[in-house]
Amino acid sequence: MTTQPQARAGRPRSEKAEKAIIEATLDLIAEGLGVAELTIEAIAARAGVGKTTIYRRWANKEDLVVDALATMREPLPPLAGESVRDDLIALLDVVRREVGHRRARCVINVAMSEADSPKSVGKRFFKQAMEPRLTAIRRVLSRGRANGELDPDLDIDMGLALLSGALIWFGRWGPEGDLPEDLAERIVDHALEGIARRA
Amino acid sequence: MTTQPQARAGRPRSEKAEKAIIEATLDLIAEGLGVAELTIEAIAARAGVGKTTIYRRWANKEDLVVDALATMREPLPPLAGESVRDDLIALLDVVRREVGHRRARCVINVAMSEADSPKSVGKRFFKQAMEPRLTAIRRVLSRGRANGELDPDLDIDMGLALLSGALIWFGRWGPEGDLPEDLAERIVDHALEGIARRA
Amino acid sequence: MTTQPQARAGRPRSEKAEKAIIEATLDLIAEGLGVAELTIEAIAARAGVGKTTIYRRWANKEDLVVDALATMREPLPPLAGESVRDDLIALLDVVRREVGHRRARCVINVAMSEADSPKSVGKRFFKQAMEPRLTAIRRVLSRGRANGELDPDLDIDMGLALLSGALIWFGRWGPEGDLPEDLAERIVDHALEGIARRA
Amino acid sequence: MTTQPQARAGRPRSEKAEKAIIEATLDLIAEGLGVAELTIEAIAARAGVGKTTIYRRWANKEDLVVDALATMREPLPPLAGESVRDDLIALLDVVRREVGHRRARCVINVAMSEADSPKSVGKRFFKQAMEPRLTAIRRVLSRGRANGELDPDLDIDMGLALLSGALIWFGRWGPEGDLPEDLAERIVDHALEGIARRA
DNA sequence: GTATAACCGAGACGGTACGTCCCGTCTTACC
DNA sequence: GGTAAGACGGGACGTACCGTCTCGGTTATAC
């Protein structure tokens, strides 16, 4: 007599198939296809899997894509908590590193895609992937405003918009190849000090 | 016998139909559909037009969407050329006003959409709609760096990224309703002065 | 101003496609497939036609098959009306001739197929193809009973069952090759005179 | 130490499951489904049995159906051997009784089903269920021809066709409800005496 | 008594065909 | 020659079953 989690009846789902599906999805995205051009049939074929096996796990293409994108995320970095500048750089550099890979580059574009239709990947990716990072940034900014490192009148949302917006900008419309390693650092410095001439 | 530009034989194309098609397209986009969910058949039905009439003018859905989006653009504002701050605010405020309409809000999302597939709307919209505005901003920044209004070491691309990125950020992930009227002004001020505490 | 039938809007349906579909269907049936093994996709492929073109005309496979079978039917033969024997032979010989072709042989098997599910081909084929012939036979039998050529106590349904049943029997379970040319004649004679020893 | 047939190791197959499967199959057929609409999954569900348990016993749906149909057959009746008429009636009445049940009615339809594809139920049911009965009828007819009860020139196959054909006719296309109890008798009499007016 | 072997239910697996939707093209009659 | 209507061949959708394959668990005989 056990109180163990469960041990559902029947043959368990194949982890191998699941991985193959995710891989195939990311592969196809990396080839430059948008969500619209992605087809479940192509994913199934590339993964060597029946369509059923996909639909058993995800209700539709968008759900699958959101999950596939999620697997590419690095975890939040540990924050030293000593300087606002260092913490912001650490947080932004995670994204910079991710976007450094070609595959992830395509992925981020897909993630930002399209309108707010219920099936849209964009909103859901935002909730799932971006929100935690934004919250972390927001927290660092609040701390900085409180302890005097930042302007006491700082509009947190505006700070967030400058930092995130710039990073997304480079990811989406920046130079084709890898992003420069010091990008996060330079974004943070420009955002902190402004672009106007120092007095 | 005329020497006029053309005067092609046969019945001329109906301007009314063309407008109805564009309107129908924007309507459907405003209802929150992404490019993928848009269908030519739905557009034709809503516009009360045959599919032929659409395909006679645009080779595919994406071309139509790009054209439809284009009709929403305001022209570049005249720049006073006296202060970098004022000029930047003027340039950014055009976008802010556009994005103020719900319809345009959806449209901008669509415009940012998706990957770099050849049919993708994103890249083409960028070329057609964003590039001129970005060039204008870039020009203002260069002028400012040259005449001492801005940091002489300013990385123009970084300035552009901060300004545009923040605006896009608010358009895409900002509050649901209209954007505040002073948004452009506040973005520019934060970008110019930075968010760190003044000495 | 016309009062003509109609002249429906849009491109008219292609008769060529329709014929190709029917032909393909009969071909595949003639290859020995039952209704169950028939697939719309195979029919479409063989006919060089899109599935849509089939579904635009027939709601499902069974409807298509019923229509296809119908095209194989010969019209009712003219009846001399002089002798019951001659008229019955004429009526039965139509079926014998049809069943003489291999293709039709398969077809008749399909036509007799299966249960009485709403989708079943059997019942519908019966209504459409067999009923008129049975009615004709029944009429000849009634006439014969009335004018003294047949037993005045004859049960018409029983006569019909003997005649039709025997013919179907040979079609379904008779010798593999063509049915003998005098089959109808012999069936009629046996049915008329009985198989018992003459007094 | 036994010399019995076998006594295989391991858990023996469940007779209960086997019966439940057959029952479920006949049930579903009786609901008017044809072989095509029958699904193994539905049978398994209705029988409360795993699909494996079915496939362990029968290679495919058709085999199962043939076996299921077989369970409905009555054994051949003992023949008095005194009169051809009585023996024929006895043989035909077995079928009449079987077909009297609604379930069997559907079953006989299924049994006659469809084309001659290798998987077809029809041919196999014929071999298994009809052949012995037909042989018995044929034997009675031969005996009658030999001993003078029947026409010395009788074509045995024709006699068989009249008798069997008529019975099948009533089973397949006769009145909806039960078949009349004297049907076999009346068929035999009509076949023996013919339907033409007595001299 | 305890292996061991075949069974059992459940249900996931790679597939095939379904019937639907939309693509971009085409063919009508009408204007 | 443009237009609305709508049929065309094609391709992907999401669903239903196919027949096969694991699972954990059960029930027999054989050791």
Average pLDDT confidence of chain A is: 86
Order of helices and strands of chain A: HHHHHHHHH
Radius of gyration of chain A: 20 Å
| Largest interface, counted by CB within 8 Å of the partner chain's CB | C-D, 55 and 55 residues
User: CATH topology of the largest domain in chain A, what is it called?
Assistant: Tetracycline Repressor, domain 2
> Helical residue percent of chain A?
55-70%
The count of DSSP E runs of length 2 or more, i.e. the number of strands of chain A, is 0
Major β-sheet annotation of chain A? none
- What's the domain count of chain A? 2
CATH superfamily of the largest domain in chain A: Tetracycline Repressor, domain 2
Distance between the termini of chain A: 76 Å
Binned strand content of chain A: under 5%
CATH architecture of the largest domain in chain A: Orthogonal Bundle
What oligomerization state is this entry in?
homotetramer
Low-confidence stretches of chain A: none
Tally of alpha and pi helices of chain A: 9
CATH class of the largest domain in chain A: Mainly Alpha
Describe this structure in a few short sentences:
Chain A has 199 residues and is mostly helical.
Detailed description of the structure:
4 copies of one chain form a homotetramer. The first copy, chain A, has 199 residues and is mainly alpha-helical. Chain A has 2 domains: 15-70, Homeodomain-like (Arc Repressor Mutant, subunit A, Orthogonal Bundle); 84-193, Tetracycline Repressor, domain 2, CATH 1.10.357. Chain A is built from 9 helices and no strands. The first copy, chain A, has helices at residues 15-30, 40-47, 51-55, 61-70, 84-100, 102-111, 121-147, 156-173, 183-193. The first copy, chain A, starts with 14 loop residues before the first helix and ends in a 6-residue tail after the last helix. Chain A binds a DNA duplex (31 and 31 nucleotides) through residues 7-14, 17, 39-42, 44, 48-53, 55-56, 59-61.
